[in-house]
Amino acid sequence: MYGAKPPLWRRLELPGDLPLPRVHVAIQAAMGWYDSHLHRFRMGNDHRSACFATEFDLDEGDEGIPESDVRLDQILAEKGDELWYECDFGDGWDHKLVVEAVLDEPLATVRCTAGRMACPPEDCGGIAGYEELAAWVRSGYDDTLLPQSFEDAEHGRNWLPLDWHPDHFDIDETNEALAVASAEPVAVTGELAELAGQLERRGIQALREVLGRPISHAPVDLSDGSAARLTETYRTFLDIVGDGVALTAAGYLRPAVVEEIAARTGIAEWWIGKANREDMTHPVAEIRSTARALGLVSVRKGQLAPTAAARRCSNDPQALVAHIVGRLPIGTKDYERHAGWMVLAVAGGGTPVEQWRAETADLLQALGWSSGRDRFTPPPPTSPTLQILEQLAGASRVRWGEVKGTDSAVAAVARAAIQRSRP
Known about the structure:
Layout: E1 9-13, H1 20-31, E2 39-42, H2 55-59, E3 82-87, E4 93-98, E5 111-116, H3 126-138, H4 153-159, H5 171-182, H6 190-201, H7 206-211, H8 224-241, E6 245-246, H9 255-265, H10 282-293, E7 297-300, E8 303-306, H11 308-313, H12 317-327, H13 334-348, H14 356-366, H15 384-392, H16 408-419
Antiparallel strand pairs: 1-5, 2-3, 3-4, 6-8, 7-8
């Protein structure tokens, strides 16, 4: 990385026939970037040097040689040849690529053989911002060195990547990241494919990498036992609703119904309070709201009643799973649907439940959504789809809904939703 002191670098072995967009992916993975910004390859250090056009540049009407038409060995052929790479035009991260050797045997994959220093956090303000962060972390988070961009030390430490230290480099972690980045994504269609294409046209590979994880290619079939376990909360809820239950004048479930739902789903075992008012027992309210979003219940004439679809599948876990898959993602607004697709991709790739929200927020930020607070804070990842997946993972049975770990059955449901064709 140009301008970093001490030097921040990676040594990579790259196949010569690698097209520049894939070189971009390799650099992002090897350096530790999240591929959430625009990039450009240049022939010189001067920003006015001849450069290659990305898909985003061409879509914007710019002219130039498309980088997708250029192979690495067409511009770098001998020891000492150089190519410049810039990403995040706001922070302005320049990378100087230099050929150290030309190998006799062609390579099949990308590999990192050495490196030094951790990648600067995304959106930290360029070299100057990185140096401030590095000095603060190296000092043991001395308050007198806290960067001015943070409100306080807690804000700064929460914003930093987990366990980030400027002097850390792990070659095994880097090669694992390269392997993930190089994997082919699972085939998707419709709106999710459009979102993935939108990111790739901007040179952002984050969603492609999620869809390329090995588990994303796994089967989607569920055993009868897994289907029963995943749908237990909704089947219990529908059993209690029966042919219909009267609502209060304010439109809430009556206290006796709330108590029964809380008791039979496991909420009562950890909830603080009597769990007899829907407006004061949000886990029960969330079961009802997600069931309604899934088209399992509806409100008519002051009653909450099962829909025709629910009557068909409430006693058949496999049929209920198929119904749920067919409804995901939930939402008519763009943000809800985008958030839904992102969490389906994340969950389908085997990400542990406790990391769903953070990964989903990062992908939404890459799509251009913001928190409205500042440029550092990702948008909120909450969506009806996320809440449904958490219910399938057993949120009602765990204290405060804090489910942890990877549930292979939930991942299969998410994969089934993202792999099916959609107009």
